[in-house]
């Protein structure tokens, strides 16, 4: 039974920005964005001081500066972030071999059986957070529960520098009161579709039959049916290999002209590249997905000679694939970009290149 598992989700607090504030005392307590201040730059990460102004990762730099005129931009140092991440992983492995990294700054741990023979997963999470603080000078938030879905929700519940536990008794009611948009695995497009079907909260989702969810959401329907009840049987997979990174947007109105599609593509590319930066990865195969107003769907892909070096190159490749598809008399309701054939990213000698969009 899933309730027998003891799962911890560790999520570093504003990781890139916190590393910069740790290493430069002049940045502490000030709004910081890791990224490029250039006109077509993008925010890779924002400190909590910057987030108070609405600054978020993947946001265009000009928008971020407009929201927070005092915002300080610092170039990324991916070699440093990777080194800190290796230290985090070493701490995790002291407790369990079942560690599933999601990116440089977060991971699942299955501590049902652990190397310290500790009965309490909450106590393990407390120890890990204390060690992270002592060994790196950074803070981490942790969620503890009986499955991955709830552990990840819990880690976000008392951020930053927090710890929250969702017990088997709490699980179903904890999910019921949350908006579906906060569920990991339910993206913006799915949230919009659920809302259109009258599904606003976990309680609304739980009221739907399995058949209804499968009819409207395909193979994901069974997953949504389970998580609405606090059930998630996915194991922690230490050998998990991510095959692709992508993002897509369903538009409120159909797109017809190339210029409006080009403008719509830019924030999608920014989201994909932001995910790549967090995972310290890149890829050689760029895929563009287009869904038309009549729900006909096509994909176009291109494999490059070398991994994509930055968001600007990713955008150029995606635009080249999309260009022949416009103008579109049928109208486009959805655009998506995916990067696959993944590999570890190389640090750019010019940080601005890796962040220009």
TrEMBL record:
<keyword id="KW-0238">DNA-binding</keyword>
<dbReference type="InterPro" id="IPR036775">
    <property type="entry name" value="DNA_pol_Y-fam_lit_finger_sf"/>
</dbReference>
<dbReference type="InterPro" id="IPR050116">
    <property type="entry name" value="DNA_polymerase-Y"/>
</dbReference>
<keyword id="KW-0808">Transferase</keyword>
<feature type="active site">
    <location>
        <position position="106"/>
    </location>
</feature>
<feature type="binding site">
    <location>
        <position position="11"/>
    </location>
    <ligand>
        <name>Mg(2+)</name>
    </ligand>
</feature>
<feature type="site" description="Substrate discrimination">
    <location>
        <position position="16"/>
    </location>
</feature>
<dbReference type="InterPro" id="IPR053848">
    <property type="entry name" value="IMS_HHH_1"/>
</dbReference>
<keyword id="KW-0239">DNA-directed DNA polymerase</keyword>
<keyword id="KW-0963">Cytoplasm</keyword>
<keyword id="KW-0479">Metal-binding</keyword>
<dbReference type="GO" id="GO:0003684">
    <property type="term" value="F:damaged DNA binding"/>
</dbReference>
<comment type="function">
    <text>Poorly processive, error-prone DNA polymerase involved in untargeted mutagenesis. Copies undamaged DNA at stalled replication forks, which arise in vivo from mismatched or misaligned primer ends. These misaligned primers can be extended by PolIV. Exhibits no 3'-5' exonuclease (proofreading) activity. May be involved in translesional synthesis, in conjunction with the beta clamp from PolIII.</text>
</comment>
<dbReference type="Pfam" id="PF00817">
    <property type="entry name" value="IMS"/>
</dbReference>
<dbReference type="GO" id="GO:0006261">
    <property type="term" value="P:DNA-templated DNA replication"/>
</dbReference>
<dbReference type="InterPro" id="IPR043502">
    <property type="entry name" value="DNA/RNA_pol_sf"/>
</dbReference>
<dbReference type="GO" id="GO:0003887">
    <property type="term" value="F:DNA-directed DNA polymerase activity"/>
</dbReference>
<dbReference type="GO" id="GO:0006281">
    <property type="term" value="P:DNA repair"/>
</dbReference>
<feature type="domain" description="UmuC">
    <location>
        <begin position="7"/>
        <end position="187"/>
    </location>
</feature>
<protein>
    <recommendedName>
        <fullName>DNA polymerase IV</fullName>
        <ecNumber>2.7.7.7</ecNumber>
    </recommendedName>
</protein>
<dbReference type="InterPro" id="IPR022880">
    <property type="entry name" value="DNApol_IV"/>
</dbReference>
<dbReference type="InterPro" id="IPR043128">
    <property type="entry name" value="Rev_trsase/Diguanyl_cyclase"/>
</dbReference>
<keyword id="KW-0548">Nucleotidyltransferase</keyword>
<keyword id="KW-0235">DNA replication</keyword>
<dbReference type="InterPro" id="IPR017961">
    <property type="entry name" value="DNA_pol_Y-fam_little_finger"/>
</dbReference>
<dbReference type="GO" id="GO:0009432">
    <property type="term" value="P:SOS response"/>
</dbReference>
<keyword id="KW-0234">DNA repair</keyword>
<keyword id="KW-0227">DNA damage</keyword>
<dbReference type="GO" id="GO:0042276">
    <property type="term" value="P:error-prone translesion synthesis"/>
</dbReference>
<comment type="subunit">
    <text>Monomer.</text>
</comment>
<feature type="binding site">
    <location>
        <position position="105"/>
    </location>
    <ligand>
        <name>Mg(2+)</name>
    </ligand>
</feature>
<dbReference type="GO" id="GO:0005829">
    <property type="term" value="C:cytosol"/>
</dbReference>
<comment type="similarity">
    <text>Belongs to the DNA polymerase type-Y family.</text>
</comment>
<dbReference type="Pfam" id="PF11799">
    <property type="entry name" value="IMS_C"/>
</dbReference>
<dbReference type="GO" id="GO:0000287">
    <property type="term" value="F:magnesium ion binding"/>
</dbReference>
<dbReference type="InterPro" id="IPR001126">
    <property type="entry name" value="UmuC"/>
</dbReference>
<keyword id="KW-0515">Mutator protein</keyword>
<dbReference type="Pfam" id="PF21999">
    <property type="entry name" value="IMS_HHH_1"/>
</dbReference>
<keyword id="KW-0460">Magnesium</keyword>
């Amino acid at each position: 039974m899933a309730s027998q598992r003891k799962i911890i989700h560790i999520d570093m607090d504003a990781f890139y920005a916190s590393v910069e504030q740790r290493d430069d005392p002049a940045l502490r307590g000030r709004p910081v964005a890791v990224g490029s201040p250039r006109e077509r730059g993008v925010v890779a990460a924002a400190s909590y001081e910057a987030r108070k102004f609405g600054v978020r990762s993947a946001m265009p730099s000009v928008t971020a500066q407009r929201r927070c005129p005092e915002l300080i931009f610092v170039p990324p140092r991916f070699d440093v972030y990777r080194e800190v991440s290796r230290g985090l992983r070493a701490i995790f492995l002291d407790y369990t071999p079942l560690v599933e990294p999601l990116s440089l700054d977060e991971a699942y741990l299955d501590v049902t059986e652990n190397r310290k023979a500790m009965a309490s997963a909450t106590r393990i999470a407390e120890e890990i957070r204390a060690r992270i603080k002592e060994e790196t000078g950074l803070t981490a938030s942790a969620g503890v529960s009986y499955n991955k879905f709830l552990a990840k929700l819990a880690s976000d519940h008392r951020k930053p520098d927090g710890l929250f536990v969702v017990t088997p008794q709490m699980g179903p009611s904890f999910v019921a009161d949350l908006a579906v948009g906060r569920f990991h695995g339910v993206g913006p497009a799915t949230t919009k579709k659920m809302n259109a079907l009258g599904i606003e909260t976990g309680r609304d989702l739980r009221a739907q039959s399995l058949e209804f969810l499968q009819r409207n959401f395909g193979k994901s329907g069974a997953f949504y049916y389970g998580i609405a009840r606090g059930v998630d049987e996915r194991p922690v997979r230490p050998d998990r290999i991510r095959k692709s990174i992508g993002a897509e947007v369903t538009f409120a109105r159909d797109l017809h002209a190339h210029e409006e599609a080009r403008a719509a593509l830019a924030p999608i590319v920014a989201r994909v590249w932001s995910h790549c930066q967090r995972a310290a990865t890149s890829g050689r195969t760029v895929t563009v997905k287009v869904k038309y107003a009549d729900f006909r769907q096509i994909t176009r892909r291109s494999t490059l000679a070398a991994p994509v070096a930055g968001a600007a190159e990713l955008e150029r490749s995606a635009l080249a694939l999309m260009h022949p598809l416009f103008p579109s008399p049928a109208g486009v309701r959805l655009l998506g970009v995916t990067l696959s054939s993944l590999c570890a990213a190389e640090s750019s000698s010019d940080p601005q290149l890796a962040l220009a969009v």
